[in-house]
Amino acid sequence: MAEIKKIKPSLPKGTRDFLPEEVAKRNYIFDTIKKVFRKYGFQQIDTPAFERLETLTGKYGEEGDRLLFKILNSGDYLKDAPEAELQSKNSAAITKHISEKVLRYDLTVPLARYVVQHQSDLTFPFKRFHIAPVWRADRPQKGRYQEFYQCDADIIGSTSLLNEVELTLIYAEVFRVLGIPVYIDLSSRKFLYGFAKLCGAENNFIEFTTIIDKEDKIGSARVKEELNTLTAGTGDKYIDLLPLMYMTEENYEERFENIISKFKVIDSQDGIDGLTEIQIVLEAILKYKYPSDRISFTPTLARGLGYYSGIIWEVVLNKPQILEDFNKEIEMGSLGGGGRYDNLTEMFGGRDMSGVGISFGIERIYDVMEELKLFPAELGETTKVLFVHFDDASEAYAFEALQKVRAADIASEIYPGRRKLDKQMNYANDKKIPFVVVIGGDEMASGKLSFKNMASGEQQKLNIEEIIEKLRS
Amino acid sequence: MAEIKKIKPSLPKGTRDFLPEEVAKRNYIFDTIKKVFRKYGFQQIDTPAFERLETLTGKYGEEGDRLLFKILNSGDYLKDAPEAELQSKNSAAITKHISEKVLRYDLTVPLARYVVQHQSDLTFPFKRFHIAPVWRADRPQKGRYQEFYQCDADIIGSTSLLNEVELTLIYAEVFRVLGIPVYIDLSSRKFLYGFAKLCGAENNFIEFTTIIDKEDKIGSARVKEELNTLTAGTGDKYIDLLPLMYMTEENYEERFENIISKFKVIDSQDGIDGLTEIQIVLEAILKYKYPSDRISFTPTLARGLGYYSGIIWEVVLNKPQILEDFNKEIEMGSLGGGGRYDNLTEMFGGRDMSGVGISFGIERIYDVMEELKLFPAELGETTKVLFVHFDDASEAYAFEALQKVRAADIASEIYPGRRKLDKQMNYANDKKIPFVVVIGGDEMASGKLSFKNMASGEQQKLNIEEIIEKLRS
């Protein structure tokens, strides 16, 4: 470090440092989710931060390709770049000659690669979770970062609907433990195929889903209009059936039967299967005491992701409940989503395997928990007690006492070095350390140490064994 | 995903996927270390995977600059690149025009940036730990990766020697909990300054340390020779003092005094301070029952890192002990290292702050633990019990029983879908699930479920409450 140019410290746009308190809170979310994943038999995996260019290119559409962070090759990277394109400054054409690695864009394509590559080492059905940062060269804005965490659980290689039930239960359990009132929207790609056919839009499926997905934004009148335009007049014939199924009402069985009978008329097996699947999952969930007013079949949830082929989830805040319980109104996008997909592994030459998975929107969950003050006051990452002292002798005495506290596996510290008592107390306050042991001459003589509760200000004289007892309880 | 080109799945060279079992083992190491860090009052932080080019450039020497992974700017990145250098394919000159971000190379320079940038939000002395991947464009080889984890604990803003004592205790505790027999080498940059002066090499300090650092490789005779060459004959006069201090022997106080008296003659305050510091740290550690044959003042440990200014650590395997306890010989570089450094934050314009830190070599620790079979048989990440079934009715019954087990917070699974019993049993075996509950017609009729211990093969008929009791114990 011979010649150091002083520079003002700053971060690349769209990235963040995390302060200790923020890390503790993020860990609380991660640990809660991990614990539930493990309880349901999911195992954690990890993959490298960067993948080969050809592994990720073309997997996320044109827009996605643009948002991939490319890593410059090492050494004399321009050596083999075509001269004509260098001279014409054709960035797009040059990239593949000077970059062979890209940062991970999501956890799904790496999962597909991983499953095919390690097929013989994995146990199928393969239940894995993966919590890791991903990177996207998106224009940074409030709440959107170039580096952010994804948190996914997937089951690969099983078509059983039991997986859908389990994943729904995971959503319910995680948000219950975190204390976030949510609403789970369920839909089904298969049902939507059937319904599109019913409406005469089977040949315009993508447009059809785009229209009904907007229902909560544009209202049902506009949806009818647009559907009629799309289908030349037949589109709105059945659309009134949809809102009926929003809630799991007393007579929902009848209503399901009504639609299924219509699917039978037009011979849509997709429609029949889709609706039956929804019914099975909903019934299983309600049986296990998930409140029926916090989950529904929401057929207008059509989600843009084209690769879903079965059940689709979206988890959103339960706004009425938040208003009631917290007296707050919060605007926030979905906190989770997922679905069943087929042929995930096909792109890497893997055999045909069905997969189903859910993900948690960590960054939004964090924001909601901050807003609703849901983080526990003590996050288990903080020192329980600080020893303070006045001179070499009391420091040595304190240090010895500290070893006993640590031997009891209690997180504890001694203030390092000689500072005035109020400075040492400030240290405890700043780090939110709840107890302080003050050691001076009197304490050393009597063995009765001053044990101070920083919140109440209460102070007691206790010996070290009594202090350990207090800290344990 | 309209047109998918099938490609053979593979990883960039020098990177790794982690299978579930590997992640569980790595988590065991991380969690053990984190627990100790927290017990000593260290708080976790995080920083982005990439930093601004100018933040890292020039901080790791020329070699380091070469090994930084640069990220290509987004969009039309060639637009502003100088044409002359593009035409002459001057890679080195072009880089700064097409890349403004680089992947993190270590956790130390980001720490310096972080401390200066967030100074007003941090509590000093700032005790932080950071466990995260770093990336280096090194030539991959056995045991050396382009992506690997670093694991650092540092204290910034305190010159108290108590910090050195605490960090040494952390080393001792972590390796004791992991079960790895290690030897802690302590040295001191200040002592080495004094000793160099004693040997007449004060103006050739770097060369001096390089020579004595090689002592374990080239032997003391060669060291003497090289020192004599370096100092024109005076260098070997005191070198015989060094080996005397390798072990903490009965009369080590006398020996320390002997050298200190020599430092007094040549008026080397550095030498006196350095040796006194070593003595204080050693005595504190030995007082807290760290075995005296597993730590020593090893003055020939001079470590290349020029920025250390005080105590230096290196943790290596204790080979004699491994031979005795495990009947094995293992060749392995150091498992940890660290030291005190001054002016870490200076490069970012921060006020003068002394720091001291240690790091753990996660990848090598992993390899040693594999070699010595030190990972616990059950890593707490495995499902405890699997429910297997034969048909829809027994699946439904099993699923209901499963909910009770999960309500008791026991990690448990049901085999999803209809497979033959032996296939379901294989799933339990492959995932190392220790217990299986088999549910068929008899079990449903009697409520007595077949509870099988997969290791012993033992099978019992128990109701679900009894099974939960068994699984809990």
Please describe the topology of this protein.
The structure is a homodimer of 473-residue chains.
Chain A: H1 20-39, E1 43-44, E2 50-52, H2 53-56, H3 61-67, E3 70-72, H4 83-87, H5 91-98, E4 99-103, H6 108-117, E5 126-135, E6 147-156, H7 162-178, E7 182-188, H8 189-198, H9 205-213, H10 215-231, H11 241-244, H12 252-265, H13 269-287, E8 295-297, E9 308-317, H14 319-326, E10 336-341, E11 355-360, H15 362-371, E12 385-389, H16 392-407, E13 412-414, H17 421-430, E14 435-439, H18 441-446, E15 449-453, E16 459-462, H19 464-472
Parallel strand pairs in A: 1-5, 7-8, 12-13, 12-14
Antiparallel strand pairs in A: 2-4, 3-4, 5-6, 6-11, 7-9, 9-10, 10-11, 14-15, 15-16
Helix pairs in contact in A: 1-7, 7-13, 8-13, 9-10, 12-13
Strand order of the largest sheet of chain A: 1-5-6-11-10-9-7-8
* CATH fold description of the domain at 382-472 in chain A: Rossmann fold
Instruction: Give the overall form of chain A.
Output: globular
Q: What is the name of the CATH class of the domain at 382-472 in chain A?
A: Alpha Beta
Largest sheet of chain A: 8 strands, mixed
Classified in CATH, the superfamily of the domain at 382-472 in chain A is Anticodon-binding domain
Query: So how many helices of chain A?
Result: 19
**Overall mean pLDDT score of chain A?**
92
Rg over alpha carbons of chain A = 29 Å
What class, by secondary structure content of chain A? alpha+beta
* CATH-derived architecture of the domain at 382-472 in chain A: 3-Layer(aba) Sandwich
What's the total number of strands of chain A?
16
The oligomeric state of the chains shown is homodimer
Distance between the termini of chain A: 50 Å
The low-confidence parts of chain A are none
Helix content of chain A: 40-55%
